Amino acid sequence: MNDPARPTGASAVTAIPLARLIEAFHRLPGIGPKSAQRLAYHVLRAPQSEAQELADALLDVKQRIRLCGLCQNLTETDPCGVCLDPARDPSIVCVVEEPLDVLAVERAAAFRGRYHVLHGHLSPMDGIGPEQIKVQELLARLGAPSPSDTAAASALIEEVILATNPNLEGEATAAYLARLLVPLGVRVSRIAHGLPIGSDVEYADERTLHQAMEHRVPLGDADGNRISVSAPPAAAAEESDRSAQPTP
């Protein structure tokens, strides 16, 4: 009769500390059993200094990283550098779901305002309501600044850009926030959705095409006047190269 407390199969030939490390890696998002094993054996074979560096980095990030008291983004200082940056426009706030979304918007280099991170989205089926995400913190930023607010943080917010994900939960979250924010007298906008640059229409799904049609950009009016629009960087560079070539 097998003892339930006794490891069997592959676990029986794996030392307990190694098995614990494999299980710890396996709990990380996107890491399957095989990947967890490879990572664990890599750590085991690595020099002691490399393993210690990994352990120190894990402890350091848990001990030193916190949420910015204003925008709720991850930071080492409170308020964070973005909230205190005088070059940022304090009148515009971009609302995103997760800290990684802030990095994505920053990479696009198309926004110079400030952020608010919700740390999730509304999902009643999963028990996630407004109380489980940073909605109240957003509303507090639109109220009268408290004496503890910094001078940089207490500026009046004029526009809130809702940049939640274009899926069912993200759209529901954006609609809910819009209902709360519009009566407060701020301009509320939603990021446009449509076809990504370089994609083909035939491969786009119905929802993406619908959004692209709804948010189409005018190029000319009924009087025959042409409307100037910004071209994608690659297209603009190509047009510039063509204009620079001598006419035969």
Provide an overview of this structure.
The chain is an alpha/beta fold and 248 residues long. Among the domains are: 14-64, Helicase, Ruva Protein, domain 3, CATH 1.10.8; 88-190, Dna Topoisomerase Vi A Subunit, Chain: A, domain 2, CATH 3.40.1360.10. The chain has nine helices and six strands. The protein has helices at 16-26, 33-45, 48-64, 81-84, 99-108, 135-141, 168-181, 206-214, 233-244; strands spanning 66-67, 74-75, 92-96, 114-117, 159-162, 187-190. The protein has a four-stranded parallel β-sheet. The model is unreliable at 144-154 and 231-243 (pLDDT under 50).
The general outline is: globular
Give the tally of β-strands.
6
Proportion in β-strands: 5-15%
Main pleated-sheet profile:
4 strands, parallel
- Spatial strand order of the main sheet: 4-3-5-6
Oligomer: single chain
Q: What is the helix tally?
A: 9
Order of helices and strands: HHHEEHEHEHEHEHH
- The share of residues in helices is 25-40%
CATH structural fold name of the domain at 88-190 = Dna Topoisomerase Vi A Subunit, Chain: A, domain 2
The average pLDDT value, as a whole number, equals: 82
Uncertain regions: pLDDT < 50 for 5+ in a row? 144-154, 231-243
Task: Please give the radius of gyration in angstroms.
Answer: 25 Å
Could you tell me how far the N terminus lies from the C terminus, measured between alpha carbons in angstroms? 91 Å
CATH top level of the domain at 88-190 is Alpha Beta
CATH arch. level architecture of the domain at 88-190: 3-Layer(aba) Sandwich
Structural classification: alpha/beta
